[in-house]
Amino acid sequence: MIECAIALWRRRVAVIVSLCLAAGACAPQIRFMRYTSSQYAPTTDVEILQIKPPDRRFKEIGLLSIRLHNNRDENAVLYLVERAREIGADAIVILGEISGGSVAMPVGTMFVAVPLRDLQALAIRYE
Questions:
Q1: Is 92 helix (H, G, I), strand (E, B) or coil?
Q2: pTM for the whole thing?
Q3: Most exposed residue of 13, 80, 109, 112, measured as fewest CB within 10 angstroms of its CB?
Q4: 3-state helix, strand, coil in the chain (%, to 5)
């Protein structure tokens, strides 16, 4: 009887955790660390770069970061571009993925470590 109650409790916890993760996966959170106190009007076009432009003068606005989810990574850059428009950036320089640690997820009677990854980009404005 107690074993059945524990099993039922574990299933409920697993369902609640799964629902929370699913809800979080639907609404991407983009973190922005501002490097300057200057405010800029939103832009319409944002370039996506792999390196800082060597032939143009620019100012670094700040660092954008988005949490990557398995099988939901295909739109991550588009979300970064959308946020870059809002803060007035002319371009973003993709810096790559960094580790965000890991989180333990219950699977049956065990816990499995799930790695957390973030994609980072530098938001810049041309001078």
A1: strand
A2: 0.71
A3: 109
A4: 30, 40, 30
Tally the C-alpha atoms within 13 A of residue 111's C-alpha that lie toward its C-beta. 8
* Contact present, 62 and 32 (Cβ < 8 Å): yes
Judge whether 83 and 42 are in contact, CB under 8 Å.
no
Closest CA to 89 of 101, 97, 80: 80
The full set of domain ranges for the chain reads: 28-126
Local structure of 13: helix, strand or coil: helix
**Residues near 11 by Cβ (< 8 Å), separated by ≥ 6?**
none
Report DSSP letters for 32-66, one per residue. Answer: EEES-S------S--EEESS--TTS-EEEEEEEEE
